[in-house]
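Listing S7. Sequence submitted for prediction.
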Amino acid sequence: MNKFESRYAQSPKEVKQMDTAALRENFLIENVFEPNRVNLTLSHFDRYIVGGAMPVDEKVDLPNPDALKANFFLERREIGIINVGGKGIVTADGEKFELDYKEALYIGRGIKAVSFESADKTQPAKLYINSAPAHHAYPTKKVRQADAEIVELGTPETANHRVINKLLVNSVLPTCQLQMGMTELKSGSVWNTMPAHTHDRRMEAYFYFEVPQGQSVCHFMGQPQETRHIWMQNDQAVISPNWSIHSGAGTSNYTFIWGMAGENLDYGDMDHCAITELK
């Protein structure tokens, strides 16, 4: 049975009072993937949906939760999918798209039926999902890593040497407001999105994967002068409010997928926070 969860938005004042359990309950998404299920979490921050589909030995359909009050999931939404498992097949209104590891697919508003399946049940696909409200129908398009806009940032000396793969962004394909990409940390580097920033015009969600067995990632959130942290494991996601920083440090290098939505499509729209001013 598929799982759908809705989570309310919180203000900085509320988050300031939260203990570890409350932070995890409101922002951490622990079970993104479960065999033969689609798990979805709706955040009231910009009505963003984070989830995952893990078809093993059967095809699974993208559900249409009652809470959306829609005739079908993509009636007023767009969706981005990035495969972090074995080869997967996504079918959108009868058109099939094969997604290898780290390949992405954008599906625009108006597509009525979406399903997921694995090419090999012994190596099931893990199809990570982000979705945002959409005002226009843009074409469905597959994006490979070779198609991405790639930026290399950081240095080994500051432990933040990383490669940013901009996959579903407006420099690669048109979307309404959804943007997704993937950041790969180089060996020996552990910090992501450092120096940190906020952007009150957009919320974000991070999905951490390729975290080696026995290692973890500490995700930092909150206002720059009132930060909090959440310890995360492999294949887990976290919701980042518009007013919050979103950064992390792992006990090893790792990869994460960032997704965001809001008022604009300007990737560089950031309010930077000096490292020495974080508290």
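Caption to Listing S7: primary sequence and predicted structure tokens for the chain studied. DSSP finds two helices and 24 strands in the chain. The first strand starts at residue 3 and ends at 7.
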